[in-house]
Specification:
252 residues, Spore Coat Polysaccharide Biosynthesis Protein SpsA, Chain A, 2 domains, 40% helix, globular
Length: 252
């Protein structure tokens, strides 16, 4: 019986700061595919000059779900390992991945637990203590739910497993970068709500924003992360607030 093979996939845009380390961390994969959204920095140059075996494609960005599903369409192997450019596979996680997929009986998908870093420092609370995402799955279930433009998830996975070693998530090195992402994601989420005909309500906007701050800062112990916890809680509240602001604009 042949050993199972892995296709490592990344969707990227202007990731010159991250792309080299991200690709190095998945060099153990049998195939590496990058789908780029026409980066304007040195992302493409770095890939072509330092990673000749990477299969590079480009497609104009519409939303995360479409990009991920398109990237999957290029993959040839039975297992898909999806990585964001700001994530890193550790040597311990690599060993666990290779051991797990060689078992006689496996799950169809696996959660990776993540250690979260913000502005160069590890975040221990603020909800990140329970942070996990499906990053490894069989190609037979490899399809992202097209009803979600952001915070996308696989549409047909039941009872995924969880690997024990951590994926490192170097989220943002500055407040400005995170703020920019919050606005981008909020706009995409607003489009989802609009297409579902969810109506804009001022009280719902205010209450959800306030609750998101309270939940992250107090219930999820962001207060124990000090200044970082306050910033992350504020940005969580801002995400809700801006989502409804953009939703209101959709109806204007």
């Amino acid at each position: 019986m042949k050993d199972p093979k892995i296709s490592a996939l990344l969707i990227v845009f202007n990731e010159e700061k991250n792309i080299e380390e991200a690709l190095k961390s998945v060099e153990f994969a049998d195939e590496i595919i990058v789908l780029d959204s026409f980066s304007t920095d040195k992302t493409i140059e770095i890939i072509k000059s330092k990673f000749p075996r990477v299969k590079l494609y480009q497609n104009k960005f519409e939303d995360f779900t479409k990009q991920r599903n398109m990237c999957i369409s290029y993959a040839k192997n039975d297992w898909i390992l999806f990585l964001d450019a700001d994530e890193r596979i550790t040597s311990e996680l690599k060993t666990e991945i290779l051991k797990e997929i060689k078992k006689p009986v496996t799950q169809t998908a696996y959660f990776f637990k993540r250690k979260f870093f913000f502005m160069g420092e590890k975040v221990n609370y603020s909800g990140t203590q329970n942070d996990k995402n499906i990053r490894l799955f069989k190609k037979e279930v490899a399809h992202y739910d097209e009803n979600k433009r952001v915070h996308e998830g696989l549409s047909n996975v039941d009872n995924p497993g969880t690997l024990q070693n951590y994926l490192l998530h170097f989220s943002f090195d500055s407040y400005e970068a995170y703020h920019k992402k919050v606005l981008h994601y909020s706009h995409l989420k607003a489009r989802d709500l609009y297409e579902k005909r969810i109506q804009y309500k001022k009280m719902k906007q205010l209450s959800k924003s306030a609750f998101n701050f309270f939940k992250m800062y107090f219930l999820k112990l962001g207060v124990l992360d000090g200044r970082k916890g306050f910033i992350l809680s504020y940005l969580s509240a801002l995400s809700s607030f801006k989502t409804y602001e953009f939703l209101k604009e959709e109806y204007a």
